[in-house]
Structure formats: C-alpha cells, structure tokens
Design a protein that fits this description.
The complex is a heterotrimer of chains A (281), B (434) and C (157). Chain A is an alpha+beta fold and 281 residues long. Chain A is built from eleven helices and 14 strands. The N and C termini of chain C lie far apart (44 Å). In chain C, α2 crosses α5. The chains are: A alpha+beta (281), B alpha+beta (434), C alpha+beta (157). Chains in contact: A-B, A-C, B-C.
Chain lengths: 281, 434, 157
C-alpha cells in the first residue's frame, strides 16, 4: 500500500516549514470537505497530509477597523459568531446557504478560498468588502487583495509552500446582500451567485461593488456595472440596466447544472434582486 | 384481528432500523474478507484483444484476478441472456465489466486497477436510437442483424392493436400529431450496489444480496456458477432502496465468482459514482402520436409509434416496450388503436426497471397529447378527458375488459380539491356507462 | 504510516491502528464493527454517514480518522441508554419515519444534534437542519413529525 505521511503541527511556523519541505506533495487538510472526496475516489495521491486544524486559526476578531478571520474558522462558527452577525451579516447569509449543517461543522473559510471554485459560497461576500487574503510561508507573510487571488477554476496565486492563514475584511460602509440559486433549495452548488454592496447617501449611490459567482472561471467583479451606479439615484430602471451590464461582463458556460442561457437569465435576476435589496428600492 | 385493522402499527422489524442494527449487505464484514473491484472498459465500443495483469499482480495486497475464463458455467446473463458476465471478446458500453481485481482492501484494488493494461481496439459507437436504426449504422455489438431487438424471426416491431386505425382516422374530423420524450433517470437508492459471497460450513455458496427479486436471479446465478440451487444460499430481504434498480444482477455474480475462485469471503461493491454511471437506468422513451378526434371530442383513432433505448443489452427492455405499449394510449376509450413498439440497442449501459417501469413513459406522453388535442379543438381540458375516459366494459390494446373504472370519480374529486367547478353535464357522467 | 488513534466512542475509550487516508467512516465500520453509520456516497452529499463529533454533526466519510484523536464520537449505537431506546428512536419507530432504513442512522444523529441545539424547532428549522440527510424512499414528512413529537415532549427519556 502507498505510504502516506501525516503531520499535525501545533503552530504556523512548524506548518510552513513542513510545507516548504514537501511543497505540492503534501495536501493541506483543514475540514477535508473538498479534499477527502478526492482521496476517497483516488483522484489525488499526496505523499503527505498536513492537518492544520491544530494551528489555532479558528477565530474572529475586530482589529483596527477590520474583521480579522482565521482561515481555520469553520462555516458553522461563522454562523454562530456575534461579530459576524453584527458587522458582516452578508457572510452569515452566504454561510447559511453553504452545503449542509454536517458539512458546515467541518468546512473552513480558508478551505473555500483554497479550493477556489468559481462557485465558492464565501467568496462573493469577501470580494464586495475588498478583503485581503493573508498567506504565510517560511519567507514571511504577504497580503493578496481577494480580487487578485483567483487565477482560474481551482487555481490561486498561492505558492505550493504557502498556507492561507487569515482573511482581513475592512469594515466598509453600506449594505451588502448575497443571492444564490442552485438546482435545489438546500445542499446545492450554486448555478449562479451574486453579491453586491452599495454605499448610499440618501437615494444616491456613492460606491458599489458587484460580484458574480459561477459565471466565469473565477468569481468576478463587474467594474463597468459598478461604475454605472456611482453618483446616481438608484431606481428600478437603473437596477435593471445595471444587472444586464453585470451579466454582460461575465462568461457563463453550459454544464451539468445549467445552460449558459439559463445562467444569463438567472444572473440578471439575482443581481437585480440583490441591488434592490441593498438600495432599499 | 380487529385490534389491528385501521390502526397505524409500527413495523415489527423497525427496531433494527432505528437502532442501526439491521444488517444491510455492506454491513457484512467477515474475517479474511477480500475486496473485488471491476476492471472497466474505457471505451464505448471495441474489440478486446487482451488484458495484461502482470504489473497489477505485483501491487502489495493483490490476491488475483477473475476473467471470463474463470466462469464455471454460463458466460451470459441478464433477463434476455445476452449480456456477458465479464466481457472478453468485445465491449459494448463504457464502464462494462471486463475483469475483477481481488485484493485485501479497496486501496490495493485501486492501485492494481491503474496498472492493468487493456488492449482494446476502439470502434465507432452509436448513442442515438434513430442513428442506430439507420441501415448501415454501426452495430452495437457483433453478431446482431441490426440494432433493433428481434421479437420473433425478422420481427423488430412489437405491434398491439384494437380495431382499425385507418378506419378510425377516416371517421375523425381532426387529426392531431405529437412527439414526446421521457428522459433517463437513476434510482439513486441510498444503498449503492454491493454483494458479499463466501462458502459456509457445508460448502454452500452464501450470497448476501439486496436483490428485489431473488427468484428472478437465483436461476441465473446457478447457471453462471454451475451450482445447483441447493448449493446456493441466497440471502436477501434487506434492501436499502431498490425502486427497480435492483432487479438486474449488478454485484452478486461478481462476488460469487471471486469467492469461488479464491475460496475466501469476497465483497464486491460499486462506489456511488460507479453506481450512477454504470448501473441500470430508466431508459429513454420516444413516442409519436397520431390521434383522430371528432368535433364533439370523441377520440376515434390513436396510432402510436414508440422507441425505447435499451442500452447495449436487452435486459428487461423488450418486455418494457410491451408494457409501455399497453399504457401509452392512456385510460381512454379509443376503439381504433395501434401501437408499434421498437426496442433499440445503443452503446450505453443498460436500461432496466424503475418506478412504474415504462407505464409512466406511456401515460405521461398521452396526457401531453390529450392536452394538445383539447387545445387544438378549443375544448376544455377536463371535458376532453371526461368524454373519453374508460367506462366499465371498455377495452384497450391489452384487451383487458375494464371493470371498476374510476377516472371520472377521481377527476371529480381532484377538481373539488382544487376548487374548480366542473359543469353539470360532466358531473352527470359516470364510469358505469355512457 | 500507521498510527494509533485514541478516542471516545459512544462513551467508551477506544484505541485503533489507522493509516492517514482512512476516514472515520472506514474505521468505525471496517475496524470497529460499528456499522450504524452507512456508506452512501463517500463524498459528503447523502448524509447516511452522519455521526456526532464533540456533539456536532459531521460527515464521517469526510473526516480523516487521525483528526479525531482525543475527541468524542457518538453514533446511532450510542443513542439509547442502558438498552432503552432514545426518544428519537421511539418516535421514528412509531411514526414510521423510515422505509428501507438506510438513511435512518444519519437522520437520527442529525435530529439529536438539532434538538440538543434547539429543543423547540419550528417546522422550517427542522427542514433546514435536516436538509443534509437525503432519503430516497421519501420518508421526510414522517421524520419531521417524529422530531416534532419529541420536541413536544411526547416521548420522555
């Protein structure tokens, strides 16, 4: 039988040394909800499992105007956390749609980033808040703006010897909303997801973020659609125009979950719905 | 007896389920048990020139392999007796069982499977029924006259009829045509396919099975193993969901063969992904309707042509065509009806029974056709059905004389529940006569 | 690389030799003879493998066994006390909250976790919490009724 090593370091320093040593021959194991199916079906054959559940990365803190979330924070803990509920409600709303209660017990926010699926449920909420992903290695730490973190389906800028340790979320103003549609009402991978954040002054939009998930090789910002709203009074007509523009910036495909045609329609509806909720229109 | 009638009684065997103690087939784990996994065809169709196990045999934990040459008895099985137990000359669908790897655990099986070398000459497959029926289409497998199932010598259409459809069309004021399709589905029972086989203290072959129909399958297994039924203890009764998917033999034959060869307990199981990809499915039906109707809504003729995608082997599909044909005209009085059914082979894993096996595949299209007819006639949907529903004494192509017809009463009740007021002239109708 | 895994299973300490890629489901079923948790999909979708880990529901098919070291695992086998059925088990039995029974161990563990967290759940809360346990026989309605009956105090421990 193939020999597989198992490491369970107790601090990040130890963990990154192991990663430096083994690189991409080691699989990082947190909640295992994406990794273990691949092991069960023999899709991957790592020489080592590096368990990061003992690194103390399950925390949510407020520091210097930011929410600082440990990469090892489980989705269940995000849902139960008071700070998240009070200051980052859109993430809780997204977490509520993620998989199922038993998967949420184990799944981590860092894992959702590391798996880098274009359908990742936690990602759009982080993107509308201009979050930063903190990576650690033997070379130190670096911060990557989340909009630059993903390079393709399942691909990120994380080097093989880097570990995702933290997500820093500036507490930007405005109302953020997350919408998701799947083939089922629960325990479903998104066919389309959308998150928006609108900074409003009276009825006029000061700043906007619009993110689409499952509509491109990575979750994407829709900058042209965002620019359409800036300085404008938000009404139903502008929302409709903006939603159409957002979807025009995406490249939905047809796959086993839905056709590109459907994604186009659903994406337009979800962005419109999210904008209306965020603007209170 | 009267203490229990009319009461909801907890199941006498339910305690085992809620305690998690009921033993499903996968719960049998015996000392020294080996695991078998299937070497599967990587191509949709091809000629098998050879299988090389040399490298796979060196994987630690591997005990050996089972091929068609190890089969003591019949090498073909299935309801039509046309499916290879283990394909050794040709393969007719991607995923088809070619051989078994038998090892101490499934990890070793997985490693060995990667090292098995298959020499298969890939051939052109055909997936679409109508492509498969075209003259000159690639044959799904060798030694077929065509890809159409033969019900009798040179008879590839199963015809059922009542009256004379041409006469019926002549009587009609309108003729409505429609084409309908029902899709492919998997049962996705919570329990994937699995079987455990071993010899007991009296040298009888014990097989733990989740079969839905032990007596359909025991004879086939006895034939494959070349054992009298008295030497097989076929133990079943605990099924983790069947829904028709466990009427075909998926695992018992393979576990049994491995147990016979290695004289040790063997478990053969399909992973969920293997089960979804390769076990039998509800196969596609395509139906074309040509229906004659009078201005007053009475149906005079119904000519249905239907095609069923059987996959690569017959299985229950030829019977399925017959069954669907009996129901494809719905519970309606149409004195001139004809159904031409064809069972078509394609290079796909087999179709088999599933929930109301082929009945829905006929009734649903007929309801779509009725909806179309009512729309084209400008007639109320309820009215068309009330006029034509079977009454006692009516007959369909199965020539069963209807007794106890109840469609009108059911529709009346449904309309009431839905808050729909039906006109008196419909409510005055009765299933007891016209 | 084999290692000894030590954990508490249904209230009793257990030591077992495992390899790093073995899941908790593998270890429970194949090594410890605890076959209540079922293998339905091996990728976390069906819920038949659900057990409680430190009181929280997890997919044992997705849990690498070595990560359970020192922790507390509860399976359907550990639900009753001194041979008596747990109220949920009684309720499931009397309400017919199963047909084939394959999903039942997982359903019971999720239901226990639900009532431990939320002793008086609404129907919506029940449906949401149980959404990760699939049943192909279609016993969902009876499962909901059984849970409601226990929450309403109809079955005392």
């Amino acid at each position: 039988m193939r020999e597989v090593s198992y490491f369970a370091p107790t601090d990040v320093g130890e963990a990154v040394k192991l990663l430096a040593e083994h690189g991409d021959k080691a699989a990082v194991l947190a909640g295992g909800t994406d990794l273990v199916p691949q092991l069960n079906y023999y899709e991957i054959k790592p020489a080592a499992l590096l368990y990061v559940g003992g690194l103390g990365l399950d925390y949510v803190k407020e520091e210097g105007g930011k929410l600082v979330i440990g990469a090892g924070t489980t989705v269940a803990h995000l849902l139960a956390n008071d700070l998240i509920a009070k200051k980052f409600g859109v993430l809780a709303a997204a977490a509520h749609t993620h998989a199922s209660p038993a998967v949420r017990t184990a799944a981590t926010i860092g894992g959702n980033l590391g798996t880098a699926s274009p359908a990742g449920d936690m990602i759009p909420s982080l993107m509308v808040m201009d979050a930063e992903v903190i990576l650690a290695s033997v070379r130190g730490e670096r911060a990557v703006p989340i909009k630059d973190f993903f390079t393709g389906p399942g691909e990120t800028v994380r080097a093989a010897d880097e570990l995702i340790v933290e997500i820093q979320v500036p507490l930007l103003p405005g109302k953020a909303v997350f919408e998701k549609i799947g083939r089922r009402k629960a325990q479903t991978c998104s066919i389309v997801s959308a998150a928006v954040r609108l900074e409003m002054d009276g009825g006029v939009c000061q700043d906007a973020r619009i993110v689409l998930g499952s509509m491109a090789p990575t979750p994407i910002r829709c900058p042209k659609a965002e620019a359409m709203l800036k300085g404008k009074a938000i009404n139903a007509a502008l929302i409709a125009e903006c939603a159409a523009q957002a979807v025009a910036e995406s490249t939905p495909i047809s796959d086993q979950r839905a056709t590109a045609w459907y994604r186009h329609k659903a994406g337009t509806a979800l962005v419109g719905r999210a904008l209306a909720k965020a603007a209170g229109v | 007896m009267t203490e229990y009638v009319g009461k909801a009684m907890p199941r006498y065997d339910g305690i085992g389920q809620v305690k998690g103690q009921t033993k499903f087939v996968d719960d049998f784990i015996l000392p020294g048990m080996l695991y078998a996994k299937a070497v599967r065809s990587p191509v949709h169709k091809g000629v098998i020139h050879g299988v090389d196990f040399t490298a796979a045999a060196r994987v630690p934990g591997v005990i050996g392999f089972v091929t068609a040459d190890d089969i003591p008895g019949a090498r073909l099985f299935g309801a039509c007796g046309d499916q290879p137990v283990l394909a050794d000359q040709y393969t007719a669908y991607k995923g088809e069982d070619i051989a078994l790897v038998v090892a101490a655990d499934e990890d070793a099986c997985a490693e060995a499977l990667e090292k098995v070398k298959l020499d298969i000459e890939e051939q052109e497959p055909v997936f679409d029924m109508f492509e498969a029926m075209k003259p000159g289409a690639p044959l799904v497998r060798p030694n077929l006259k065509s890809n159409l199932w033969e019900y009798g010598p040179d008879m590839t259409t199963r015809v059922m009829y009542l009256g004379d459809v041409e006469k019926g069309f002549a009587e009609a004021d309108y003729i409505v045509e429609g084409r309908y399709q029902t899709g492919e589905q998997d049962h996705a029972a919570m329990e994937p396919m699995v079987s455990v086989a071993y010899f007991d203290e009296a040298d009888r072959l014990v097989i733990h099975t989740h079969s839905q129909c032990l007596y359909f399958q025991l004879g086939q297994l006895a034939g494959i193993f070349n054992l009298p039924m008295s030497r097989i203890r076929y133990k079943g009764g605990v099924v983790g969901g069947g829904f028709g998917g466990k009427n075909h033999i998926h695992a018992d034959h393979l576990a049994g063969l491995a147990a016979i060869k290695f004289k040790r307990p063997v478990k053969y199981r399909m992973s969920r992904r293997e089960d979804l990809l390769y076990s039998t499915k509800r196969g596609v039906f395509i139906l074309e309707y040509k229906t004659g109707v009078k201005k007053d809504g009475r149906l005079t003729a119904n000519h249905i042509k239907l095609w069923h995608d059987a996959g690569a082997y017959g299985g229950f599909s030829p019977y399925g065509v017959e069954k669907c044909s009996m129901f494809a005209s719905g519970p309606y009085h149409i004195p001139n009806t004809r159904v031409d059914g064809q069972c078509v082979l394609t290079n796909k894993a087999g179709s088999s029974s599933m929930r109301g096996f082929t009945i829905m595949n006929g009734q649903f299209p007929m309801e779509m056709q009725m909806a179309k007819i009512a729309t084209e006639l400008g007639m109320d949907q309820w009215e068309l059905r009330f006029i034509n529903a079977w009454r006692d004494g009516d007959m369909g192509v199965s020539r069963y004389v209807v007794r106890g017809a109840g469609a009108l009463e059911a529709m009346t009740e449904a309309a009431k529940l839905a808050g729909i007021e039906l006109p008196d002239r419909l409510l005055a109708m009765s299933s007891r006569g016209r | 690389m084999k290692q000894i895994l030590s954990f508490t299973l249904n209230g009793s300490p257990v030591d077992v030799v495992v390899t790093p890629t073995e899941t908790l489901l593998d270890v429970l079923r194949e090594k410890l003879g605890v076959t209540g948790p079922k293998r339905g999909c091996d990728d976390g979708d069906c819920g038949a493998c659900t057990v409680l880990l430190d009181g929280e529901p997890v997919r044992s098919c997705l849990t690498i066994a070595l990560t359970v070291n020192g922790r507390d695992v509860l399976t359907v086998e550990g639900l009753g006390v001194n041979g008596d059925l747990h109220p949920l088990q009684k309720a499931f039995h009397e309400h017919g909250a199963f047909q084939c029974g394959f999903c039942t161990p997982g359903m019971l563990m999720s239901a226990k976790a639900l009532l431990d967290h939320n002793p008086n759940p609404s129907r919506t809360e029940i449906r949401e919490y149980m959404s990760g346990n699939l049943c192909r026989c279609g016993s969902y309605e009876e499962v909901i009724e059984a849970i409601q009956a226990v929450a309403a105090g109809e079955y005392k421990e």
